Amino acid sequence: GAEGSTLMSYFSKNQIQALKPKITFSTLRDLPCPVLQSNDLQGKPEESCSTEELFEWLGAVLNQVSLDNKSSSFLSTYCCPEPNTVVEKAFLCTITGFIIPEKIIQLLEQLCCYFGEPKLAYWLTLTVHGFADSPVSWRESEHGFHKGGENLYNFVVFRNLDYWLQMAVGAHDDCPP
């Protein structure tokens, strides 16, 4: 009857709202960024930073940790790895929600268009996090939460369209394929 259709409309409306991703934009000014060379994953002293150094730096930026190594900071004395360059303006976009792989590919393609004109950026990153308490992670394995529930991957795309793919999983999870 009428009660059933009212319930149906209530749930469908609220489920749609729950699945709609939340998007936030922020501009980071005067951001120290690692210098990267697409063909040098290990990095070279005074020339470029390694993939591990970038990954650590990215974690600090995404969590809005200060990068200026102040001894008075109770949170972190982390500083940007060397060599680095100060970027006057960096854009950070965060999309939170349930996002299907096809949308991630579409987003990556759109980001690569950013290297068109004007050619300001040398590289950009796209990080995809699984939910920490997700029941599955990579392959068909259960996801071991244990400490941090890590399951994420990160694309680093360079101006010449070379890219790095970094993956992180918890100690009790299967490695990605």
TrEMBL record:
Q: Which GO terms describe its biological process?
A: endonucleolytic cleavage in ITS1 to separate SSU-rRNA from 5.8S rRNA and LSU-rRNA from tricistronic rRNA transcript (SSU-rRNA, 5.8S rRNA, LSU-rRNA); tRNA 5'-leader removal
Q: Which InterPro entries match?
A: RNase_P_Rpp40
Q: Name one GO cellular component term.
A: multimeric ribonuclease P complex
Q: Which residues form a coiled coil?
A: none
Underlying gene: Rpp40
Stretch forming the signal peptide = none
Which species is the source of this protein?
Answer: Grantiella picta
Q: What is this protein called?
A: RPP40 protein
One Pfam entry for this protein is: Ribonuc_P_40
